[in-house]
Amino acid sequence: MRPILLQGHTRSLTQIKYNREGDLLFSVSKDQVVNVWYSHNGERLGTYNGHVGAIWTVDVNSTSTLLLTGSADNTAKLWEVQTGKCLHTWEFKTAVKRVAFSEDDAMALAVTEQRMGYPGTIVILSIKNDLEAEQSDEPINIVYPKGSKAMAAEWGYLNKYIITGHEDGSVAQYDWKAGDQIKSVKAHNAEITDLQMSEDRTYFITASKDKSAQIFESNTLNHLKKYMTDAPLNSAAITPIQDFVILGGGQDAMQVTTTTMRQGKFECRFYHKILEDVEVGRVKGHFGPINTIAVHPDGKSFSSGGEDGYVRVHHFDEDYFKFKYPELH
Amino acid sequence: MPGFDNARQFPQSIEDIDFSDIEEKYKVPFEEGFDTIIVVDNAPTVDESKKDKLLKFIRKIFKNAGNIKDIDMPMDLDPETETLTSKGFLFIEFETPEQAAMAIKQYDGYSMDKTHHLAVNRFTDIEKYSQIEEEYKEPEEEKFVEKEHLRSWLTDPQARDQVVLYRGEDVSIFWNQKTEPPEEVHKRINWTETYVQWSPLGTYLATFHRQGIALWGGPSWNKIIRFVHSGVKLIDFSPNEKYLVTWSNEPITLGPNGGAGTPFGPEDEGRQIIIWDVHGGNLLRSFPSSTLSSDGTPNKITWPMFKWSSSDKYFARVTQGQQGQQGQQVLSVYETPSMGLVGNKSIKIEGLVDFEWAPASDKEKEKDKHSGEKKQREELLSYWTPEIGNQPARVTLLNIPSKEIVRTRNLVNVTDCKMHWQSNGDFLCVKVGRHTKTKKSTFSNLEIFRVREKDIPVEVIEVKDVVIAFAWEPKGERFAIITTSDPNYGQPTQGGVTLKTNVSFYYLEKPKPDKETLEKKSSNAIYWSPQGRHVILATLRSSTIFDLEFWDLDFETTLDQKEFAKTDPAACLQLMSTQEHYGVTDVEWDPTGRYVITSSSFWRHSIENGYILWDFKGTQLQKHLLDKFKQLLWRPRPKSLLTSEQKKAIKKNLREYSKKFDDDDDWVKLKLSKGQFEHRRRLMEEWNAWRRRVEKELSEERENAGVASPSKRDDDTIEVIEEWIEEVVEETEEIIDD
Predict the structure, then answer these.
(1) Which of A219, A298, A327 sits opposite B680 (nearest CB)?
(2) Which segments does the entry list as coiled coil (chain A) (predicted)?
(3) CB-CB under 8 Å, B582 with A328
(4) Mean residue pLDDT across chain B
(5) Short-list B613, B608, B614, CA closest to B583
(6) Which chain B residue shows the shortest CA-CA distance from A199?
(7) ipTM of the complex
(8) Which CATH class is domain A4-328?
């Protein structure tokens, strides 16, 4: 099906996210605006205005009432989804690169940048899901990652731990209460750019600049799968229904102007999740690197946000759902 | 203050003192070498009266060799005549060992008169030979080490071909396996420092190193031999792999110990080209790099610098004459294994620009094999000279070693000539770049020499446009050319403008010479299959077009066409496939003409480096994108041992053979798909087992924690609410009169 092109940002996309039902799509960009769209037709519902720096990250709670964003203006903001009202602002010393609600929505983590003498941290915030309640400024805990700074982070199921992906390519498990590292494995040879959980949070996928994406088991950090591509990756997502993963990336934005579109490899690549080396297909369209990919929770569509400032919403064709590996079924 | 407490330890007498260190220090150095002294034997025996006369004569002879310090001729008292007589030998001392060596070289065997032939030897030699033990001791026999079978790769039951792949720092050798991934034979990291090269028959793989060249081969891929040549950049094998030519941009230096431990002697110093014996690893001869050109600047290196004749018997190069003047070019033809000039002198050819050896026909090759060293056939070479003064430009065919001119042809208005021999040596095509009288525009002539026919008739094909590429069909009677009349030709193009070109195929035989032209192409390179018949037209070095066209020149669909083809060969010209390989830089046919590999090398650009394997029809079999892919070369094969009758018989029974091969293919496919199927099935099972375990653990943990799974989606609970909203946009009331 023809993709829907969402033209609501004036600068490159940094993250996109569906809510739990998948009817809404939130997108954040370096142009300091948060947009929310109807995912089925691409109509824009509205914007959340207030950040004064590039917005790096967004997350929505499971009941689609609260939206959390992190920005280069050194703040994280909590918004009321329905009205666009800013409910609370947390101030930090450096930019907020990643936010994520916990499974039960009672907490959120915020990954702050290491800059100007301040170490990179992972701040655990307490969130009250009552829209009228006053949010607490005081974090529950601050985790100081060991060694290389964290680039991405996610919660484990039942809030058992948090999983972090680091600049040196390692993946680690942290006890967010004590602030200690539980486990760490050297997964990639270059920085990790994205980390997304499976539906039940028992495994997760990492994307890296080393041109590969990998799947790990959350509890043990055991390596399960690896997908090799020929371009640096910025994002990776796991699809429900079909056993696929979607990888996106492309040549560094800095070099794009000097090369042809074809060489940039700005495509979403589909790999078979279990067979690893089987590339199922590609979706072209962006004319810059793909920065972020999100899959609709029902697995019937996915979206990609690019350096070119566009979000492309793709609904899968009938063929996609019928696809089966003949020899395996 | 030193005391005398230990006085007891002092030596008792002078004998007890150890002076050896002092003696060592002040030892008078005796002249140890007798290198400056020579012994002259077979001199006339004379008595006292003639002694001075003889010595004077000797002195006169030997003073040419150097300054004589002293001559001593022992005289004995003859008991019979009671006079002092010389004994027929004398000693001469020179100032330096070099002069002594010179005297030996020049005057050993010198005839003073009819009966007296001087024997001149080093004085030290006499001592050396007198010390030889009387008893003969048998030299220890070296243990025979069996060499590996250097052509083992040809015994592959499926007759697969090997390729060498150079990527990043890794060099690996693979079997080509059609559609299946290539099978690795051998791999080494940092095997070479610059690039790799096969020998022409595929026996050796040459790798380049700072210190020299190494040749590898055999089933174990061990080092076979090493050639020391510091800074070597270019190499060239003789056609039958007997000799190797190496070139380094650094002149040979002997170092402080006069080249000890290296294969170089004093005469090699300062030279840049070395010819080696591949089997023994010996240095055969070194040459200086080509001499300065007429204006005194160093010549550009053209490679191969020496061109080899097809039998390995001769090699030759063009050099400027000794005066280094215009028109003093000489063709130096050397002979193997003596490494001397044929007929002891170079051939002076005024204005000589370039020459080419004629390849040998199969028959001649066969003969070479059997005749061995006994009888040498004449070998043919062609050369051309430009217009000088009133003399027209000229192409000449010359026989070696007789130096007999077989055929000459005069040409006018020539700007450039390129000589192309057909691979059997049957035809020579000279591509003549010509200019109009005003010298404003250029066009090309093709002069075809039919070498095997009597008197060597020449045909001229006039081409109005500029010929940018020419290629003979291997062993065939056809050739292809690419011409262009594009105004951009020859201009310094920006951004790689792709020229519009025409491609023409020429048929020299059956039944009359004919041609077929394909117009409006962009192709600029011709790649014939080594077996002939199939040809690839490629567009290289363009930034926008990367076309590959696979053509068949003997395409037969119906019998009618076959009949028709007898009168019009062009009817069988068929485009089989047009493909594109983005960023293609090189095209390589495998030696059997079954497959072709197009590659995109990191050396030219970094766009989509890697290679694609096609079959001869242009069907893509495999594609590999490899970072830092540099070089890929098929391993050449030696000439087939089958006779042409045997080949014909195989062609006739091709149907039976192909059935067997089809069966083989099917079997391999079955095996593979089964293997792959098993592998994938296992992966699926492992994953599913793991999921079951993890899901069970998860649900247990959730139960213990008393938290239901939040991500559980239940499609039944999704409620679709449809709202109908009616809006009245406009309402007008009109009263219509009855």
Answers:
(1) A327
(2) none
(3) no
(4) 82
(5) B608
(6) B711
(7) 0.83
(8) mainly beta
